[in-house]
Fold this protein.
Amino acid sequence: PWALSIPALNEGRYETILTHMVSHAGLPHLIMNTLALLTFSPIVVRAMRRGRGGLPMIVRYLLFFLLGGLASAGLFIAMNLDQ
């Protein structure tokens, strides 16, 4: 029910644009993504510290995570228009 799809969007289930970021392929995939996030987060945070910005680091990181999820949702929809 949390998966992103064109039928879900046609039904008005727009929350799937966000829920797909954590629930798209089951528990093993979620564990793999969590491990990847833990592995690469220090690298991303270090790179974000070098940049200038008035926002606190946690806000910049959450925006990065959210924008990445929205971009992946858009790419998924673009690649699956026939479904």
